[in-house]
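Quick one, tokens below:
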């Protein structure tokens, strides 16, 4: 059974938009509902899915075509924003992005790559800026679209 099958259609819709990197305020505006309603639906959806972080939605709700009022943009400017070699300099950067994409907190990232918490926070901010995205969720989407490109580059080197 697919884990998203336990969600209502509205919860699924909001999770898809959140996985795109949209803020609660943007989702509320797009769907003409209150920001509080968005928060309640997402909180309930997280509980049903057994997740804690918004970035974990990216793996469950990959971009795809939909019809109707909540169309997901297939051009996906986040995924195609910046080439991998302009974002990731080394294995540490790759590990940081992979940890963020997996939904890890800055503290978990710091432990995972054995750096201090302030250094981890700074590296995450730098990687978000380099990738040309706005937040951790968009960085996770960027990584989901580009991880195989990075692996191909490594194999050629």
């Amino acid at each position: 059974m697919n884990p998203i099958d336990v969600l209502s259609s509205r919860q699924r819709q909001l999770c898809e938009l959140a996985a795109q990197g949209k803020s609660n305020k943007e989702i509320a505006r797009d769907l003409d509902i209150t920001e509080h309603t968005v928060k309640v639906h997402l909180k309930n959806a997280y509980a049903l899915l057994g997740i804690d972080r918004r970035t974990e939605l990216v793996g469950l709700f990959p971009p795809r075509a939909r019809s109707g009022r909540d169309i997901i943009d297939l051009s996906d400017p986040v995924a195609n924003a910046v080439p991998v070699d302009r974002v990731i300099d080394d294995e540490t950067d790759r590990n940081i992005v992979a940890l963020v994409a997996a939904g890890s907190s800055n503290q978990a990232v710091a432990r995972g790559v054995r750096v201090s918490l302030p250094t981890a926070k700074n590296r995450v901010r730098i990687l978000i800026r380099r990738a040309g995205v706005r937040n951790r969720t968009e960085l996770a989407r960027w990584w989901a679209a580009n991880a195989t490109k990075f692996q191909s580059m490594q194999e050629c080197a």
